[in-house]
Amino acid sequence: MEGTYAPYSYRTDSGDLTGIDVDMAKEIGKKMGIKVVFVPTKWDSLVAGLQDHKYDIILNDMAVSPARMKVFRYGAKYIYTGGVVVTKKDSGIKQVTDIKGKKTAQSAIGNYVKYAEKLGSTNVAVPGFAEAVATVENGHADATLNDAAAWGVYKKAHPDTDLIAIPSPSKYMPVTGAAPMMNKKAVALDKAVTKAEHELRKDGVMKKISEKYLDADYSNPAK
């Protein structure tokens, strides 16, 4: 996990890791009877670190996608949040399709960069969410496509920001759900993690974690 991506994984004022993914990892570890060791890693290095076996699993709001499923294994989905377009109030962008011909700040390895480029924007590569927002704020990009929950936390911490978020229809930014991601050969680990997740859902723990950080239950897809 990144450790810099609220509300999924970030530091408290005392320096401790917290967030949805941190709590999920701890609860999965309890169910499996193991101690979880966190390895904070920059977003653009997360996948490479997993492939190099620097850690066994990624919990970092990793969206499930057909392309990733060809290379990796996923546990059960535990969070479903949509995407938004973050831009300045006076940017002229009123809906997601308005990013055509604009510059968007995105990580080079995420799903959002694919959505942005498909809509005709030019990517300004950044390591993660914090840098993406800063790039829009300083005028080096017109917008960034990103997670609605992450934006909500940012907005709460920066109430006077000139940035706004524009919700996007799911046909442009699909709500695919996020799940723990593992290497393709980690069959036994995948089975154990998925079993633990099913128990956490049944026990209501997954719902409580979502409500703790998002004030609502996003542990199930919207009906």
SSE order and pairing:
Blueprint: E1 10-11, E2 17-18, H1 20-32, H2 43-51, H3 66-69, E3 72-74, E4 83-88, E5 103-106, H4 111-118, E6 122-125, H5 129-137, E7 143-147, H6 148-157, E8 163-167, E9 181-183, H7 187-203, H8 205-214
Parallel strand pairs: 5-6
Antiparallel strand pairs: 1-2, 3-9, 4-7, 4-8
Helix pairs in contact: 1-7, 1-8
What would you say this structure looks like, in words?
It comes from Weissella confusa (Lactobacillus confusus). Belongs to the bacterial solute-binding protein 3 family. Keywords: Signal. By secondary structure, this protein is α+β, with helices and mostly antiparallel strands. It has two domains: 108 residues, D-Maltodextrin-Binding Protein, domain 2 (3-Layer(aba) Sandwich), CATH 3.40.190.10; 85 residues, D-Maltodextrin-Binding Protein, domain 2 (3-Layer(aba) Sandwich), CATH 3.40.190.10. The chain is built from eight helices and nine strands. The strands form four sheets. It has a three-stranded antiparallel β-sheet with strand order 7-4-8. Strand 1 and strand 2 form a beta hairpin. The chain is globular. The two termini are 29 Å apart.
